[in-house]
Amino acid sequence: MFMWILPVAILYGFNHNLLPGSTTLSPHSLILLSGFLAVVSVNTVIVFYICMAMKEPADKHKPDAAFLAEAKDSVNKLTKGATSSDDHALKKQE
């Protein structure tokens, strides 16, 4: 939510002279500064999100054993099917 609200608020604040000192800037400088600050605000939110994710304990989420077993069976079926079709293709080429 902050990734959308913060940059839009910064751009709105600069373009409608709500931030102090923005009235003394030229239009070109105003656009450059507001755009730069909007990009910096998005990157700050992303860094904050990454830091919060890194602080989350790794053992908090345990995978479901039934899901893992089903996924392994599915992978095994695909790999067995791929080798048999590869063998069939090799025989066909010979």
Describe the structure.
The protein is mainly α. It is 77% helix and 0% strand. The chain has a domain at 1-54. The chain has helices at 2-15, 27-55, 65-93. It is elongated, with a radius of gyration of 27 Å. The mean pLDDT is 81.
Short description:
Helices cover 77% and strands 0% of the residues. It has 94 residues and is mainly alpha-helical.
Write the layout of secondary structure elements.
Blueprint: H1 2-15, H2 27-55, H3 65-93
Query: How many strand units?
Result: 0
Strand content: under 5%
- As a whole number of angstroms, the C-alpha radius of gyration is 27 Å
Question: Helicity level, as a percent range?
Answer: over 70%
Number of helices: 3
* Average pLDDT: 81
| Intertermini distance | 60 Å
Sheet bearing the most strands, described?
A: none
Low-pLDDT stretches are none
Order of helices and strands: HHH
- Assign an overall shape: elongated
Structural class: mainly alpha
